[in-house]
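Q: Is it fine to ask for two folds in a single conversation?
A: Yes, each is treated on its own. Send the first.
Q: Here.
A: Result:
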Amino acid sequence: MIYIVIPTYNSPYIEEVVNNVTRFSYKVIVVDDGSNIPIKLKNTNIEIIRHDINLGKGAAILTGAKRVKELGGKFFVTMDADKQHIASEIKKLIDAYKDGTIVIGNRNFNTETVPQSSKFGRKFSNFWVKIETFLSLGDTQSGFRIYPISILDLPLKKKRFDFEIEVLALHVYNGGKIVDVDVECYYPPTEERVSHFDKLYDNIRLSITHTRLIFQRYLLLRGWLWK
């Protein structure tokens, strides 16, 4: 069984996203991270887990991971609830997966609807992750990923958007591998776009996370002398 974990918070597109995924007979676990919008989904291949309050995207992914582990899964796919990730592209991630590996879907940003700020943000993130892990990855901001269940054994502290950076570095420090694969995506025009990324606070959180990871990597020699 292939498990798809979809964290969501007040997404008006969640039903559309889930219905597209279930066309491929995957098991979908929706983690409702304290939404005010009621989610109405009826399908035997869909399970909804709800956080009473908003805990953050990372916390929602970890909740989904724990459920996958309970169900006996060894890995799971994550995708966002904003229509950006295309269900038919999941197979590309699965084909690239090997035991214990994180797979990242590199989104095709060669479309007019992708703002320059997003392109810059991806390059900026890729640069710092390369410094932290020595890996040249194409899209470290992509939420379209496969995670092995072993991420639950990592000493993860971040629970919001900064989780997606921390988990990459700690996975590598623990001896894990990361691969990426090119995927198509739908980057909606401005009027359709839904994002809960706070440009001030989330960028501050990301900066703090990168600083901490670099300190651990180069001054404490994490990944070299200890995990």
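Q: Second one now.
A: Result:
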Amino acid sequence: MSVYFQELDYQPTPIGMLSLRRRRELALGRDVFEIKLGEQFLMSSLFTVSEIALARLGLAELTGQGLEVVVGGLGLGHTAQAVLESEAVGALVVVELFEPVIAWHREGLVPLGEALSADPRCRIVQGDFFALAASADGFDPDAPGRQFDAILLDIDHSPEFLLDPANARFYAPEGLRAMAAHLRPGGVFGLWSNEVPDEGFTERLATVFTDARAEPVTFHNPLQHCDMTQTVYLARKPR
């Protein structure tokens, strides 16, 4: 195995083969960690600006201390880490579908794994975010019906480009309304998208939430020498 490329793990899942790999990006002089599902790239440590923005923009909408937050999708952990950077956060529940991803963090195979696992405010729950969002019990198996101050989601590529076609139900008004039941009054929903803002989805959010908007997040791609724009959608549950 070349020192410039290493496949750290490769595991089957119900929706495809999941792999974690590390490669040396010679042009930048740094190691890059990547997660793939089949031939799709789920996450790269080279591009984390918008994943971090999801946490920071979502939390910026809230006031007070001891905030309780859900992050849907663990990945390489950048959204979760950005949530925990806030001293206002008292508890974080991260919902991750794939058990191997959780194991990568606990075993220290990914750079942020040890820090997330060691933070007493952070608990990782293995489960299907979309099924839990639609359920009456919600996201915390130890406290059915628990409500949160913020729910931040980074799983699908966008509301239209899904990892699993079954996820489409979540992005309809009925699915969003079911998820909103797990937010406290005035709580915030944030969604990451790999695409530029979609006015149609913002309008859909507005049928369930107040203050629905799309925040473009633009950053430089050092490999293609150009700027990229992704999106963080934000919306508030009525008080």
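Q: Anything structural to flag on that second result?
A: Two points. The two ends are 56 Å apart (CA to CA). DSSP finds seven helices and eleven strands in the chain.
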